[in-house]
Amino acid sequence: MLVPVIGVVQAGEQARADRYTYLPQIGLYVLIAWAFTDLMMTTSRQPAVRGSQKLQARGLRAFREPAQRTQGRDYKPFCFGIAAAIIIALSWRAFVQTSYWKDTETLWNHTLAVTTDNDVAHNNLGYLSLQRGELDNAISHFETALMIRSRNAAAHYDFGGALIENSLANALARKGLLSEAVDHYENAVRLRPDYGDPYLNLGTVLFEQGRTDDAIAAWQKAVATQPTDAGFHTALANGFLKGGLQRDAIAEYEHAARIAPDDPVPGNNLAWLLATSFDASIRDGNRAMEFAKHAVQLSRGKDPNYLRTLAAAFAESGRFAEAKETARQALQAAEARSNSTLANALQNEIALYELRLPYHK
């Protein structure tokens, strides 16, 4: 029962997992319950009474009778009172404790109030602030978490430290502090070279800085850490596409589509490239329709971007009537979502299809 508690089997970064102490305490609870039951049943006892002399006189062996129960003090009301008081007290404490779980912010703020040097609480509050767009607050929490962790150089803390470094870098990048973000992404991959997310995010920031080759190298390292993750291959394909390496992008999109056939994103991106590429040797309307139809099917025909891709594939294949009808469906879906940018693009493309011209980007 102590095995999950004492750290022989790790279930996290901590040296001991006191959250599992309910296991070795089971025996104590059984002891208390049975002792309480015995206490309730206890009454005063009289000394044993020996067998009568008459029975001895008749040649019968004397025997010792068990102690006879006699009327004594009844402990049951007292025990019931104690039990009721304990239950009420514990119920009240449970009510108070569960109130701290009202929401994430309340929980982790309470955690900080009753603990010291709690990097987990700071990290989680930082992540919450990042989700809310409160970048300064997020950066402050992440930096505090890293400062706390820096006091412990144990190797098993590296993955948690890499997570915080990555989150801090994300906050810095969103604030526009790209150089600082790059430093922390590099810290993250130095702590855990097998952690792919920092490579992925680092590549995005490097690309924004105009360092296309470095960005692609980072994305390739990300894929190496997660070779079966379709999202990583899609991100690498997007990087190749941004760098003008369309054939490399096609190869990655195809690989991602094979890995995750139920994910519409890589198939849709591939179909768009095959339908709209400026390079005639790359365009393939029939293959584009195949991938675009599958993406539309997966999205149940509700995503205007996938409908737009299918319309472009129809146009590349010379099926302009279907291209116009599909583009109009995409336009309605875009307007329903108040996506004016996409709606304007679709209107321009519909005008091309009416002239029996495909859209090439």
* Strand elements, count: 0
Proportion of strand residues: under 5%
Structural class given helices, strands, pairing?
A: mainly alpha
Given the structure, what is the number of helices?
A: 17
Q: Classify the helix fraction into a percent range.
A: 55-70%
Q: Biggest β-sheet: count, sense, barrel?
A: none
CA-atom Rg in angstroms: 35 Å
Explain what the structure shows.
34% of the residues are buried. Residues 43-49 have low confidence and may be disordered. It is elongated and about 105 Å long. It contains 17 helices and no strands. Helix content is 67%, strand content 0%. The protein starts with 25 loop residues before the first helix and ends in a 7-residue tail after the last helix. It is mainly alpha-helical.
Secondary-structure blueprint of this entry?
Blueprint lengths: L25 H16 L11 H5 L18 H24 L4 H11 L4 H14 L2 H15 L8 H17 L3 H14 L4 H13 L3 H14 L4 H13 L3 H14 L4 H13 L8 H14 L5 H13 L3 H17 L3 H15 L7
